[in-house]
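HUMAN: Please help interpret these tokens:
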Amino acid sequence: MKRINAILKSKMYHQHDFLIAKFSPLSGGSRISAKGNMGAPLVGGEYVLIGDYEESPKYGKTFCFTDYEVIKSQPTEPTAIASYLTDNIRGVGLKISQSLTNQYRGATLTKLKQEPSITAVETGLSVELCERIQENLLLQQHEESVDIDLRSWFHRANSPKHLISKIIDRYGFDINPLMEDPYQMVKEIRGMSFPIADCLYKAMGGEPESPFRIKAGCEYSMRFLNTISGHTCVRPSELMSEVHELTSIDGELTDNAIHELIDDDVFQKAPNDMVGFKSHVGGEQFIARDLLGRLQRGKKNEFEERMFSQCNYDLSDDQYGAVFTSLNNPVSLLTGEAGSGKTTVLKSIIHFLKHYRPTNTILLLCPTGKAAKRASSVSNLPACTIHKALEPIPIPSGGFMFQKNEKNLLEADVAIIDESTMVNVDMWVVLLKSLPYYTKLILVGDVNQLPAISAGKVFDDLLDFNKIPSTKLKSIHRQKMEGLIVSNSRLINKGMPMIIPTPELGNDFYFAGANTTKTILEICVNLMLNKIPQKFEVDPINDIQILVPSPDKGDLSAKKFNIYIQHILKQSNPLENQTELSWLGDKVIQCKNDYTLGISNGDIGTVVQVNEKNYVVEFEDTVAEIPSKNNNLKLAYAITVHKFQGSESPFVIIPLHYSFSSMVCTRNWLYTAITRAKTMVFLVGDWKQTGAMISREHPNLRQTSLGQHLTQVWNVQSNN
């Protein structure tokens, strides 16, 4: 890391604390371009920049600083003070600033800050102008002081300083509430964890057994169990164990904190002496009451069997039964393996309703934009994401709110929710509250795929309850029965070893053996960029997808693959440079819904233009201008199976290595990855890892309260 002592001469760009500026090194020489995060940069200020040089397409050789030190933000030499006033105070030109420095020399800034009225009399300037200059100078002094305090605070706690810019962006320069309770940042700032906030709290001399620290530890531990384990509720002893590991606090204090959080309506008691966030436990309770209420009150047996036979659908017996069950019940479930004909059933349902109920409004909803586009293309019915149907709008405090709710219902006679296994508890609650009670619900999903990324397993729990009308499709229709995609996916679900494919590329399954991560990566990339496109005459970027377990951890993460592929495509040596290049021309994926721009989580596009402020990205249905900083884009040559769930690609490449997390690479993970392929699957690495994954049927059973709530509600209904 290099250190450069320099004066800030001009700001070229400054937004969300990201600065591009010209600096003049005190060691002499010409001015340099520099970029990095700086909380309160002031022209004329003296800084030590810590970082290194890189080449910028627009600015040439640029110093990229990852840290900095404030030496002297306000100058004392008259000429420098004049420049400082002109550059930093709006409405103050060179003539005014020079007249001030001629009068007060090096004491100019002190005079303006302390005696603006006297300064006005002595210089002939208006009192209003001098007071405005004072206000600006004091504000800049305060912002600089806050920035220095934060940096000192983070330094004492040995915490990552890149979070400082996020703190200022979120809270401004009023950080007194944070000094009193730094744990609020854990919930409000992305990247801020409890351990970091705890280090900051300890650096301030905070009391280890303070109630708000223990309660913050309970919330963080519960959120950890939600995210890592998928639980919506846990036994108090399990939560206390996590809290003790995090904070070293003993059980009695933690037990008191848990009860306080229940009293505060943050936690809620669940059946079987468990506890969870109220949003999860209460949400599952609502789902049980809502769905069983619909099932009890809704219309049943609306359609006679002869009406189905008159349509002459080409369906198997189980598909025919699925259509009949779905249409004749107010709530129904449809499941089956990939290729079992769920889409065919949905097309038949939609066709039947259009024929016999032409005035019915049918909603086809999916959890992701990619899944919605696929569902729409195969069903000939407009589909959209659940989020989009609920009409989100931004709110001033950040985030969004849904316009559709229990007071402003969706218009739907029938609602089909595809890929239901991906929908989490929170989204089910919002959706059900927004649907009229008369809406017929048809929930479709494949329980063999990965569950929702966040807590819960709603679709699985509804199936396991066994009292909601449901159909499981067993026959495979998508590929020919002799195809190994079908055969191996069924073997995976049965917990049996897969059939090892022959090496010829003519089948729908291919395996290349390799042991080291370096070899696996090189084979996967060669398949993607050379062998598959040459043999099958397909587009390597749009028709081939590499699927991995981790977004950024390990030598076979999505990040490693993406940087490697990016360098090859841009004719750079990936072994010499491990950093991302300019994204111009790259395949990217949007990782969060952005309703302002009209793009959804999972949308994949191409960067067609790059400037210093924005990326112009061409998606399938739209072109969006996205900020180049603080966005939710990632390179997408390789992505995780979780991120690609609900989507398909003609060709799928899957690396296999013993270093992959056993928590992630389970039977469900392998099944989901393989069934994303429409034409051919390529496995690369150690074949033994497939057996290890298949053996991990339930490495981590999700603990939920929905099953108990369903039973309780059902018993109450039965006794009334």
User: Anything to note?
Assistant: The chain has a mean pLDDT of 88.
